[in-house]
Each structure stands twice: as C-alpha cells, then as structure tokens.
Amino acid sequence: MNDILERLSRTLEARKQADPDSSYVAGLYTKGLDAILKKIGEEAAETLLAAKDGAPGKIVYEVADLWFHTLVLLAQQGLEPDAVLLELDRRLDFSGLEEKAQRRT
User: Fold this and answer.
1) I need a labelling partner for 4 at 20 to 30 A (CA). Which of 10, 55, 71, 86 fits?
2) pLDDT above 80: residue 44
3) What is the full DSSP assignment across 2-42?
C-alpha cells in the first residue's frame, strides 16, 4: 500500500511543472494555498456527510478525495507523505490520552 503513496507523491511533485490548463493539480498549485485549503475543507465536509449517510462506498470515495487533496497540500508545502507516516508510527507507542497529555507539556 505504501507504494501507492510513493507513486502519488511523485505524480503530485511532477504536476508542479505541468501546465495549469491541462492539469487539475497544477491548477491548484497555481491558485495557491488558499485554494488547496478550500478543497480540503470541502472534501472534509463531504466525508462527514457520507459518514452520516452510512454508505460505505460513498465514505471510501470521499475519504479518497480528502486524502488526495491533503497529499496535494503536503506536496505544495514541500513535505513528503512519509513524514506523516512516521508521525503516525511514533504515536502507535502511546495511547491517545498519553499523546494528548504530552502536547500540553
């Protein structure tokens, strides 16, 4: 599964050089951070609505859109998906309550 993230990450990086008129992602990069954040907000809202509907296929579809646009944000910010995976891996060693308590200190 990690291969999918690597391939997608390479594609998103390549889109930085693409023509915005021929690439949706290049268009988002050209529009800038606010446009990317707006898409993430829209996709998050659609994910919430899909979950409320309780349709598994719709949830998967919307989460895929949310993840995709979040990966666009990471690429735009010069960050790799591996940074997020490493953070998630680090958190596996803690309960959620322990992890939240550490943030306060």
Assistant:
1) 55
2) yes
3) HHHHHHHHHHHHHGGGS-TTT-HHHHHHHH-HHHHHHHHHH
